[in-house]
Structures are given as structure tokens and as C-alpha cells.
Amino acid sequence: MEMRTEEQDSRVARLKAKVCENVDARRDELVSVSLDIHRNPEVAFTERHASGLLASHLRAAGHIVNHPAFGMETAIRCDIGPANLPCVGLVGEYDALPEIGHACGHNIIGTAAMGAALALADLGADLPGRVRFIGTPAEESGGGKIILARKGAFEGLDCAMMVHPADRNLPTFPIIARAAARAVFHGRPSHAAAGPEHGINALDALVTAYNAIAAWRQQLSHGCRIHAIITEGGVATNVIPERTVGEFVIRAPDRIMLEDMRARLNACLEAGALAAGASVDIAWDENDYHELVTNWPLAQAYRSNAERLGRNFDEMADQPFGFAASTDFGNVSHLVPAIHPMIQAMPRGTEFHTLDFARGAASDAGMDALVDSAKSMAMTAIDFMCDAKLRGAVAGDFVAGRKGR
Ligand SMILES: [Zn+2]
Ligand SMILES: [Zn+2]
Which residues surround ligand 1, an ion (CB under 5 A)? Predict the structure, then answer.
């Protein structure tokens, strides 16, 4: 038994060393792809250049690539390796933000996932499992992965991973649930001076609703958030507003708390309409973002591999109060065991969605993060493919995580 374990260990060590060599051999290629995507930022669902570039590199390496995939023009699917072995999903984002470009560093994410897939594929017959690279459009808005999930993009995976650039190395990220609504208030127009009593003021309805929300904030549970903006507030001061529109986002640590918030937000909106004698149409976005269920055995494997590359991790317990975001990868983590670690790609204190972050995403440190995240994911895939005990722990943690919900 002892002998076999040692043999197994040396095989894993050899494969890990090889995938790291494979990433290094492709370093120039990966950096050039990532910088090209960075120079040509594309927002949700329009990522034609980025997805085309990634697909062309996968094809050039001799792989069969679906692009478009799952009915989405800018999505990619590339399956590598034998179908009967454990299958690891490598998830790549590549959408940018309006105005500020790659201020979330998705040029690094998509290229790193492709780099890991190619490094594993370059093992040839030694690849001890199956890999699916999934190019996932529209993370920043649109919930691309939620749409892809409905089309079965994550079916058949035994686990899934993606790594996001940040200002620090973390084994996971506090990803909270999110839902969005748009409310249209309907009143009745009248002349604001000559006949205000004939009007029904849709702006009063919206402002009363807004104030009800503002008062509610005081009683919000820890970790809950609500955001509200007015996008239409009337058209002329001398007309009692007939129509107003507001947009609202709620966030909560989990989906159950999110449902409580949804009911309360509906009540606030209806109360505003009722008070003004107006009516309201509330439309909830059908693509709710779910909280991330971190698969800890897999996250721990990732962390050990990244530490082997010299990466020092922050502990989650030391993160600042309120440190949280939402992503459609949260939904993926409810379908398959999944991890979403963060890798340091820029100086500490650089905030997401800023021009500094966009600069960091094309910096030398950003490119080191690209290479290290590709290596860490590829090594973690090797662990998962070769270690039945790890696969058992990952599957057990996934079931336990779902029972808790
Ligand atoms: Zn972002
Ligand atoms: Zn992002």
C-alpha cells in the first residue's frame, strides 16, 4: 500500500511539474492574448474579438471548439480528454465594463482558464482526466452563466473553477446573492398650476417608495444591501408626472434572506403607489445571482498549489467588514462543486472597477498572476483527476453545502 501511495505521489508531482512547464512554454502566447483582449474591451454579449481570439488559439492547438456555443454567439466550449474520466470545468470570463474597459481584469480570467486547459491538453496521452474550457460571456451584466446553465453548459462536470484577479491572494471570495427589479409607476398627468388636483403624481409614488426603502435600511440584517436609483422622474415641471421609473438591487448573504428582502421591496414599492393613488408595475430580472458555495476541499487544494508558486494568502477572517460582491459564478457553485479564488495581480488597495484596476490588469504583476493562476488551476485539476480521496471529499462537501440551504 505504502509503495503505491509513493508511486501515486511521484506521478502527481511529475504531472504538476509538467503542466507548469507547459504553461511557461506558452507564456508569451498567453500574455499576448490577454493584452490583446485588454486593448479591445467588449461589454456583455458583444465579446466577439475576445471569444474569437481564445477559440482560435484552442483550435490552433488542435482541439475541437464550439464557438458559438450553447446558443450564445460569444460563448465557447472546448472538451479535451477521454469522456469516462473525472471532468474538470475551467471557466473563463472576458467581458469588460462600459467606459473603463477591463477594470475587473477579465482579460486575465479568460486567458488563464484557456492557459490551464492548454497546459493540461499538452500532456497528451498522460492527461489523467477530462477538461472542459467554457468561455462565459456577460458576467458584469446579463448573467451569462445563468443562461449557459439553462443550456446545460455545466452538466457532466465533476467540479468547476475560475480565478479572479484582485489586490490580494484569497482562497475564495464572499459572493452574496443578488436580485434586480425595475418598477414603473403610473399616475395621471395634469397641468401643475391650472389643475394639479386632477393629476396623480407618479413621482410622489416613487419618492415615497424610495423613502420607505431608506427607512428599511436601518433594520437590514448584517450583510444585506439595497441600492436604488431613479431613471425617469417626469418630463416637465409644469406637468404632474404621469410616469416614473426606478431601478433596484437587493443583496443578501444567501437566497433565503434574499427572498425576504424581495417581499419587503415589493411592499415598499406598492406602498408608495398606494400613498399617491398611483399604480406600479414591478418587473424582477429573471436571472438572480446566487451566493457562492465554496467547495473547501477543492479551495484548499488550489491554495496549496498556489502557495507552492510562492503566493501568500490572506485569511478570510481578516477581510474588511462589508467586503463582498455578486457574480453569476455563484449560480455555477449550486450546480457543481466549485471554487472562485482571487489572485494578486496589482498593488494592495487597488479597488475593483477603477481605472487603476484596469491598468493593473495589463501590468507585469497582472501577467504574473495570469501565469500563476493558469498553473494553479492546472495543478489543482491534476490533484482532482488523480486523487480519488480528494474527489470524495469534494463531492461530500458539495452535498453538505446543499443540505445547509
Ligand atoms: Zn466586475
Ligand atoms: Zn470580475
Answer: 104
Return d(Cα 224, Cα 17) in angstroms, integer. 44
Q: Distance between CA 128 and CA 85 in Å, rounded?
A: 7
Q: How many domains are there within the chain?
A: 2
Domain boundary among 255, 284, 313: 284
Q: Indicate whether 389 pLDDT > 60.
A: yes
> How far does Cα 394 stand from its chain's mean position?
21
CA of 111 to the centre of ligand 1 (A): 16
Whole-number Cα distances in Å, 281 to 105, 162, 185, 189: 37, 38, 7, 18
C-alpha cell at 208: 415615497
Backbone angles phi, psi at 216, to 5 degrees: -60, -30
**Domain stop point among 284, 311, 330:** 284
Q: How far, in Å, is the centroid of ligand 2 from the Cα of 73?
A: 20
CA of 307 to the centre of ligand 1 (A): 25
Residues 138 and 203 in one domain: no
pLDDT tens per residue across span 196-210:
999 999 999 999 999
Q: How far is the CA of 30 from the centre of ligand 2 (A)?
A: 19
CB-CB neighbours of 331 under 10 Å: 23
At 3, the pLDDT band (50, 70, 90 cuts) reads: low
Confidence of residue 379 (pLDDT cuts 50, 70, 90): very high
Q: Are residues 313 and 209 in the same domain?
A: no
| pLDDT at 1 (0 to 100) | 47
Residues constituting the chain: 405
pTM score of the predicted model:
0.90
| Centre of ligand 1 from the C-alpha of residue 324, in Å | 12
Give distance in angstroms: CA of 352 to centre of ligand 1.
7
**Whole domain around residue 232: which residue ranges?**
177-284
How much distance in Å is there from the Cα of 201 to the middle of ligand 1?
37
Ligand 1 centroid to residue 164 C-alpha, Å: 10
**Domain of 389: which CATH number?**
3.40.630.10
